[in-house]
Design brief:
alpha+beta, 5 strands, Helicase, Ruva Protein, domain 3, three-stranded antiparallel sheet
Amino acid sequence: MAVSIELVKELRERTGAGIKECKDILEQVDGNINKAIEILREKGIEAAAKKATREAKEGLVGVYVHYGSRVAGLIELNCETDFVARTEDFIALANSLAQHVVALNPRFINVDEVTDEAVSESGQTREKFVEENVLLAQPFVKDPSRTIEEKIKEAIAKLGENIVVRRFVRYEVGA
C-alpha cells in the first residue's frame, strides 16, 4: 500500500524516527499509525537495550521549581556526549523528570536500591512499594500510560545514546 507523505510526516513528528523507516513501517501496517507507533516503540526498546552498556559521562541537571517556589526538584541526567546533552529533546526530558520528582517524590532510582527494610516499614507489598517509590518504575506524571523507564528508553532510541539517571533530589519548604 502506498502511504501519503502527510502520514509519514505525522509518524515522524510523533516518534522522531527516520523518514524511510516511517514510510516502510506504514506500508507494512497498511497505513495504521497506531500499529506503526507500537512497532517503532518496540524497536526503540531493543535499541536502548543494546546501548545500555555504553558509558554515560556527559549530561546536565534538570530543574523544576513548582509554582509558589515551595517545592523544587533537581535530577542529574547523563548521556554519552555533550552534543546530545545540549539538544532540546534531552533538556526537555531532564526538566520533565525533575517535574516528575516534585510531583511523585520517589525515594529510589531503581529496584536494585530498594531494601527489604524499607518495604517492611511501609506495610505495602513489594510490588506496590516499588511502583510508588522507585523512579524508573513509576508511571510518568505527564503520560501515565508509560513508566519513566519506558520514557527514557524512547529517548535513547530517538537520540541514539545511552541515557542514565544518576541521582535526584526533591526540596520542600518545611519538610
